Structures are given as C-alpha cells and as structure tokens.
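Consider the tokenized backbone below.
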C-alpha cells in the first residue's frame, strides 16, 4: 500500500537512495505552482496523476502554453479514472528505456532482486513486449538498479513479490 501513491512512492524512493526523475517533492496543488516547477526543472515536463496507472492522468507539456491546457486535461482524467486529482510534475524523459526489476522479500527483512526486464516497446503506455535481459543495460548499471530496487523494497518492509519500474534516459 505504501507504494500505490506516486507522490508518496517518490518520497520513499528518495529516502531509500533510489535515483529519481528530477521534479519537486510533494503534490503540485495549482497551475501557478506547476509553472514555477516547470521553470525550475525546464520544459518539457510530465504532468502526472499521483493515483492509478496505465498512462491515465499523464500529459506531456513542451512549453507553458501547452502546460496550461494539459494540466486541466490531466486533472479531469485523474478524478474521472481514480477519484483523486492530486498531481505531481517531473522532467519529461524523451524516449526512455522502461526497465522493470522483480523483487522478492520475506518477513525477516531479506530482499532479493531478479534480472531486469526491458519493457520499452509500448502502445498507449501499456507494455507490448518484455525482453530479458535488457540489451541496453550494462552489468554495472544492472547491478546498481537491482540494488536500488532491493533497497526500496527493504525500506517499506516489503514481504512478497513485486515489481519496481524504472525509466532510464538513453542519453
């Protein structure tokens, strides 16, 4: 349950030492605050619903005019889909690699991670193909990402199987 909310998840991930996409911690409560954050991190930005998934409540804005329109659309979709219109704003990563790492934890605090899956081939934010291992990830990055995924699971006392999703900037 601790990881079901993107705003809370990002705070927990940072506390666990996980690399996170640049943005501002916490909820963005107004358009004015969104514009301030966008100026701070630079366009393009991703306006994202804190609740839900599947790409709903997510909009890309390449400039202030587009952000003004997309903010309203993202909030409407979030409240309609999830009953929750809390938003966060992050730097938009253009053509990221979508990497998923399976973690398994027990009630004694032990956590292991399995090799990553490349899930970058998507249609409408839904995976079409999963490939393991990723041909994009080198051994050092693979280990660092696995260790960060395990650290995150440990930090929330995770004691089952789950998936940590990560975006990797290809540049």
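A designed sequence for it:
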């Amino acid at each position: 349950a601790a990881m079901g909310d993107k705003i809370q998840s990002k705070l927990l991930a940072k506390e666990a030492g996980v690399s996170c996409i640049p943005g501002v911690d916490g909820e963005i409560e107004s358009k004015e605050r969104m514009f301030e954050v966008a100026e701070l991190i630079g366009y393009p930005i991703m306006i994202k619903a804190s609740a839900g998934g599947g790409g709903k409540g997510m909009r890309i804005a390449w400039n202030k005019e587009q952000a003004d329109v997309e903010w309203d659309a993202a909030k409407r979709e979030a409240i309609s889909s999830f009953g929750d219109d809390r938003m966060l704003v992050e730097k938009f990563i253009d053509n990221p690699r979508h990497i998923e790492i399976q973690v398994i934890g027990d009630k004694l605090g032990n956590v292991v991670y399995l090799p990553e899956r490349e899930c970058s081939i998507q249609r409408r934010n839904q995976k079409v193909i999963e490939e393991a291992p990723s041909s994009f990830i080198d051994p050092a990055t693979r280990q660092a990402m696995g260790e960060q995924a395990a650290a995150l699971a440990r930090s929330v006392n995770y004691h089952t199987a789950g998936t940590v999703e990560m975006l990797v900037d290809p540049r």
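The helical segments are 6-15, 31-41, 64-82, 139-155.
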